[in-house]
User: Fold this.
Amino acid sequence: MIYRVTRFLPGVITRLLVAIILQQEDRHDYDASHRLFGQYDFIVVGSGTAGGILAARLSEVPEWKVLLLEAGGPPPPESVIPALNVVLMQSDADWNYFTVPQKHGLFGYVNNACHFPLGKTLGGSSTVNWMMYVRGNRRDFDNWEAMGNPGWGYQHVLKYFKKAEDYRGTRNAKTASYHGFGGPSSVDDKRWGTPIMHAILRAGQQLGYPIIDPNGPEQIGFSIPDMTQRDGRRGNTAEGYIKPAAARPNLHVAWRAHATQVLFDKYKRAVGVRFEQAGQIRTVLAHREVIVSAGAVGSPQLLMLSGVGPASHLQQHGIPVVQDLPGVGSNFQDHPSIFGLSWTVNKGSSDSVFRIARPEAIQQYLKYKKGPLTCPFGVEVNAWSLAEEGDPYWPDLQFLFVSGTPALDYGLFITDGIGYRRDLFAKHYLPLVGLEGFTIGPMLTRPKSRGTVRLSSSNPKAAPLIDPNYLSHPDDVKTLIRGIKFSLAVGDTPALRIDNGAKFHDKVLPGCEHQVFGSDEYWACYIRHMAKTTFHPAGSCKMGPASDPYSVVDHTLKVRGVSGLRVVDASIMPLITSGNTNAPVIMIGEKAADIIKEDWGVPLYTL
Assistant:
């Protein structure tokens, strides 16, 4: 009964707000499913952040016919309002996948597993995410190049970050040379924040950390996040790239078209795609290339269904092997974050779940595109601390500051959305019901644990087995313990403790009573109970040199051992970036488009 109410209530609130706020319907009415050609130059599978960009950029060449296949439908109307992002993550715009039960963590979550949100709609996860624009650290990309991927160093990729960006912010004037202006992807200042947001920035300064532009030359410090938005509305690749490009006669977009197989000829050349739509199996052919952009879960899944992947695994499911590639579905990475380190504060300092439904908030949004509805719910500050090992300016921790505690909605629906066991919530968080507060989420930016994506069966509609293998490497726990101690230091600064009455919720976590509270052993137990996904899957179709037996694509993103096939999305990252992943995937889509154009004799983009 609780589950039904918690799924029903957000939907009612959402639709009420959408009906009041949206002055006109955002039209995505360019589905070309009824008029598809039998053959295209390029078929792009997946209209997510990278795939949408890639299809739009390839269609800039008038002679090329491009097909973009999307398993989901158009963006839901509520997706344009940033504050309604929470309800999108268990909607029809999400694949509604879960991880397999974890052996080394997630002990505080139902079935030792967690919901694993992935966008199933035009724009993919850029339509349902938390909209934070973080490129990563320049050392991430220099390291990619050092791993045997020429052309992927920071100085090479920076121009593609800038090409995509239409920076509209005012806070980062000193780092303007690192930003782009006039691109399809709008990036703007976060337009609203609670008093606690400014207190957190002061707390960082009291610890000796500067206020920074994390997309500038260095990343260490505290910042108000930049957001992928335009005029207070979500900016996704569906709006920025796909919708404008769909007006071209050489781009066809087909949605609710679930790709089930990449087709190969006897020479191992990708020659087309089979997909299911409206209960029918359809086939289209590719004259030049098939490009898989289905994301870090969907891309390895489709490759394996098509016979490209670890031979023994494919044979287990009765799938004929086209190419034995052991790296497909391996090297799977995600940023685990600790959800639940909470503080109470003085009344009026923080946020309320009911604030976004107030008439004043709606009026602010309608008239000025300002106020709490312009910001993903609860998002306040990002920070990166100095690393203790290696280069101190290549951070191994990011900190997500959220205004509110897990009990800010009185346990109505956020608890089930996060996935806590109900008994744990009742024992640990009920004392916070009705109180204002904030939460700090230490996030591991360079995890050492590696997981897998595997098929559960040869049925394309069967959910894949998603195993991030969280906390399997002991160093990940050690680093997160350091993240907790840094969080406690932030919460104990005068800016928070004295000025805002911040008090840490120091109730012992159920399941960790056998450890001395505050000891490293206690925090290790806490981490294994409370750390979970930050929704940043990557790495499962690794880019690397031929000498790396687990590389799936080369530095031009061509799949090894076959021809006419590339992968373009977060799955190609050899190592995950040091921050939220949407911005680097935008860059990957832009760079891949130029790589493909160059391969086929079209002049490269130049700044």
Q: What stands out?
A: The two ends are 57 Å apart (CA to CA). The first strand starts at residue 39 and ends at 45.
